[in-house]
Give the backbone structure.
Amino acid sequence: MSSTQVQNAQSAMDHFGARITARLSESADDLPHDVSERLRAARVQAVDKRKSVLLQTASALFAHGQSGTLSASRSGEHASWWQRLGAVGLLFTLVVSLFAIGVIQDELKTRELADIDTSLLTDDLPPAAYVDVGFAQYLKAGNRQER
């Protein structure tokens, strides 16, 4: 399970707990005093238990992973050459992929600009008409009249 899935599950459990608490609190005023005191004590114990479980989980993550990172090697062993080669291979693949993405994006941008230039140069109007302020006003006025 990823940390996002764990957080989502934890959030769903918290939401469920809040809904149960709201339901139980609705009829808490009708209970006798001794029953309400036993329920309060049980609630305090449950909260303390939850805090201790969270602390144990956090300390276990810190003790095993030094900030929760995963390691493929067993404790006390050095990484084998295959693991190092795999890590270098993944890093190389990442760098090549990023380079390829940059080249592809540049190519797409170049094609887009070339298409715009082609349409401007093959249009009936000269390119200078598009930068003329009066022509821009004429186009805006024409759009208003069509509506």
The helical segments are 3-26, 33-65, 81-122, 128-131, 133-146. Residues 81-122 form the longest helix (42 residues). The CA atoms of residues 50 and 56 lie 10 Å apart.
